[in-house]
Amino acid sequence: MPVTVVAAKPPAAEVQADKYRFIDIGVNLTDPVFRGFHHGRKKHDDDLEAMLERARAAGVKSMIITGGSLHESREALELAKQLGFYATVGCHPTRSAQFDKFRGGPEKYLEELDKVIAANLTGKGRVVAVGECGLDYDRTHFAPAEVQRRHFRSQLALAKKYHLPLFLHSRAAHKDFVRILREEGFDKDGGKAVGGKGGVVHSFTGAAEEAAELMDMGFHISLNGCSLKTADNLAVAKSIRPEWIMLETDAPWCSLTSTHASKAHLTSLPPALNALYFPPGTKPEAFVYGRPVKGRNEPTAIGGVAWVVHKLNDGVPFEKVTEKAWKNTVELFGLTELQ
């Protein structure tokens, strides 16, 4: 009696997680939640090192720690030196009232930012961008629009003086945002003619036409969970030209959640990568050292952001997405030691 032999299916190719590398260009490591403090109350042990270990396992090779004020910029640089990362120096638009309240006035505040930059331009833990600066018209209760505009403009002078990229923030303010950039000479080639070195509009949530205008002016666009919430957001993300794309988490903020439009694309994430990018967490009250804390975004999730971009661009391999973002980041911020 003849025997039919059915060939066994070849085992599914294992995902080589170590093929994919990332630089998280926007991470708020100075936030107290990484030390166990939530809303001013100590909820669990400091687990910064455990969080960094998870990030390394997920392929995050380096990070740029965001400075959102004079004080925070100093903290970011100190942490960057300790950890071998990088930092930005500047004042977030929602904190721009600090310029006017500073002892010695706004000129003194700007002078202090200048000094911090001048003292940290080289070596380990150096400043690689001026910012986070820009405009946020969604939160003018923190700082009036006119105050934001004035101190956004003043920080652009630092980028020109030190030939540093800008780390930019724009919310519901695109018209004034690009007008000020153009008036200050950043209308093309990222402001090269006036000493600028371009920059990146991080956590981008604007329209496709706005992204196109910024890219045409010589600015990169960075995506995170907040950039991928809605179907409209996804269409914008798909429109970002490869040579201008960057990736970030904005941790501990801007998580990718189950209610976002991005979720449909994350269902195809291979289990091996899912375990690295989204390891299961516990609530702060039930904290277990070595496990993520629910509700707190972490740099591991940058792989999920990249996966969504990969799925939006049919036919573009995941590794090509991650490597393009890596190359763009190294080039813009001068991270030559990571090449």
- Please give the number of β-strands: 10
The SSE string, one letter per element, is EEEHEHEHHEHEHEHEHEHHHH
Roughly how much helix do the residues carry, as a percent range? 25-40%
Low-confidence parts lasting 5 or more residues at pLDDT below 50? 1-13
Largest sheet: 8 strands, parallel
What structural class is derived from the secondary structure elements?
A: alpha/beta
Number of helices: 12
How would you sum up the global shape? globular
Strand content: 5-15%
Mean pLDDT: 94
Structure overview:
It is a single chain. By secondary structure, the protein is an alpha/beta fold. Helix content is 37%, strand content 14%. The chain has an 8-stranded parallel beta sheet with strand order 1-4-5-6-7-8-9-10. A hairpin with a 2-residue loop joins strand 2 and strand 3. Helix 4 packs parallel to helix 5 and helix 5 runs parallel beside helix 6. The N and C termini lie far apart (63 Å). Residues 1-13 have low confidence and may be disordered.
What is the topology?
Elements: E1 22-27, E2 37-38, E3 41-42, H1 48-57, E4 60-65, H2 70-83, E5 86-89, H3 97-101, H4 105-118, E6 127-136, H5 145-162, E7 166-171, H6 174-183, E8 199-201, H7 208-216, E9 220-223, H8 231-239, E10 245-247, H9 263-266, H10 271-277, H11 302-312, H12 318-333
Parallel strand pairs: 1-4, 4-5, 5-6, 6-7, 7-8, 8-9, 9-10
Antiparallel strand pairs: 2-3
